[in-house]
Amino acid sequence: MQIADKMFVAIDYRLTLDSGEEIDKSEANEPLGFITGASQVIPGLEKALMGKAAGYEAKIVLEPEEAYGAVREDLFQEVPKDRFPDDTDIEPGMTFQAQGPQGPFMITVASLNANDTVTVDLNHPMAGKRLQFDVKVVEVRQPTADEIAELSAPGGCGCGCGSAPADNACGCGPSEQSNCGCGGSCG
């Protein structure tokens, strides 16, 4: 059976950057499962797998436009420093989780400013990066009724790894320092 729209697909994968740094991988005997067309993996990866069958193995290289997009300058915003936890020494490169209308999202501190504000980067941490996937298709089949129902459940339908809208930075104070990899179903 070949991968087509609305199919359940399970893959073993390893994600690296051009530098060779490993960003994510599926665990042994725990392939990443997703339904095509449900925005559960990045578009370029899904597109590259279309028409393939179980047993297919390849290195798939995705340019930023096929993955998390280019770095967008409009997603850099100044936020008052008092929106950050008082007990935290804020430094460039730190990541925080904030809450927006569509759920939690990550922000990265880009710079500290003299006017008591912090410039934050709302781009996805993988924006602007070329991604290299070593992929093996483990399974291709019709999704079960339960798998389809899970997509409709609150919190279902994708991993939420897309870039946060620019207006999410204002009004939601970052709540905790966190590292944002690209694990789970973000593939």
Features of this protein?
8% helix; 187 residues; disordered C terminus; 34% strand; mainly beta; Chitinase A, domain 3; 5-stranded antiparallel β-sheet
What does the model show?
The protein has a domain at 8-70 and 126-157: Chitinase A, domain 3. It has helices spanning 43-49, 145-152, and strands at residues 8-17, 22-25, 32-35, 57-62, 76-80, 95-100, 103-112, 117-121, 131-141, 176-177. A hairpin with a 2-residue loop joins β6 (95-100) and β7. With 187 residues, the protein is mostly beta strands. It is elongated and about 60 Å long. The two termini are 22 Å apart. The strands form two sheets. Strands 1, 2, 3, 4 and 9 form a five-stranded antiparallel sheet that branches.
**How many distinct helices?**
2
CATH class designation of the domain at 8-70 and 126-157: Alpha Beta
CATH architecture of the domain at 8-70 and 126-157: Roll
Shape: elongated
Kindly report how far apart the N and C termini lie.
22 Å
Rg calculated over all Cα atoms: 18 Å
Question: In percent, how much strand structure appears in the residues?
Answer: 25-35%
| Series of secondary-structure elements, N-terminal to C-terminal | EEEHEEEEEEHE
SSE arrangement:
Elements: E1 8-17, E2 22-25, E3 32-35, H1 43-49, E4 57-62, E5 76-80, E6 95-100, E7 103-112, E8 117-121, E9 131-141, H2 145-152, E10 176-177
Antiparallel strand pairs: 1-2, 1-3, 1-9, 4-9, 5-8, 6-7, 6-10, 7-8
